[in-house]
Amino acid sequence: VNRYIWSKPLLAWAIVQALVLKQAATNEAVCRKVFFGEDVASSDLARFMDRFKLDCKIGLNIGSALKQFPSKTCMTEEGIADW
User: Fold this and answer.
1) Rounded to an integer, what distance in angstroms lies between the CA atom of residue 51 and that of residue 67?
2) Residue 75 main-chain phi, psi, to 5 deg
């Protein structure tokens, strides 16, 4: 992650804006840069952004999710996944 941030800082910042700050639902430029590009029609982009707005209303319980990830539940005592 650290290498990516320093090699592409503007794109890394755009990803933070889109996902962490949830601007993919409200900022057309950020949404295009991270997810769709310039070739998507504005009407389609507006439809996708409306869906992002709905997703923003749902929270994620990280503590609960971490307990269910396979990497946490399928490790040996040495910390190696069994697959």
Assistant:
1) 28
2) -85, 150
Q: What is the C-alpha separation between 46 and 61, in angstroms, rounded?
A: 28
* pLDDT, tens digit, 9 for 90 and up, residues 23-70: 999 999 999 999 999 999 999 999 999 999 988 887 777 788 777 776
Which tokens belong to 65? 């999710």
**Residues making up the chain, counted from first to last:** 83
Mean pLDDT of 2-9: 84
C-alpha–C-alpha distance, residues 76 and 56, integer Å: 36
- Identify the CA nearest to 19 among candidates 58, 52, 48, 43: 52
CA contacts within 13 A on the Cβ side of 61: 5
